[in-house]
Amino acid sequence: MKIILKEDVANLGYKDDVVEVKNGYGRNYLIPTGKAIMATESALKVLAENLRQRAHKIAKIKADAEDAATKLQGISLTIPAKVSATGTIYGSVGNIQIAEELAKLGHEVDRKIITVKETVKEVGNYVATVRLHKDVAVEIPFEVVAENASAKQEAPATVEAEAPATEEAQADEQEVPEAE
Fold this sequence. Notes:
It contains six helices and nine strands. By secondary structure, it is of the alpha+beta class.
């Protein structure tokens, strides 16, 4: 079934795109929620005329997106996160934390247009993609670091010195949940 999108739909297309979807998805979700209409001959003619009339507005929107992309181009983020002794993050770093860090630098970016290709659960370097327009995307490298980097550097020396005590503490911790 061919439909015309009335708004951006994640992983499907952008506003005014003509896309092919399965019949059930189109009839049961996209059309009833107002996200799309059937792509009939008359609807396609109306769409073509609207796009012709809005061509200069669309060009301005794309130019604004390109300007924002040039501002974001050279940015590299450092995101602090709470980390365990093994370097694993408590939780994960996602688009919300990236949007907050960009806001601290003075770049207001909607968190919905930020995507991270892989799940960020460890300290390291990653890349996020900011899709400002359907033709304009910027890749922003970011590094996830321990929230208390100095404490983390001191912690391994302490852990090595207390290795036998740690094994006993782990045995005690295993017994405590059973008692509860």
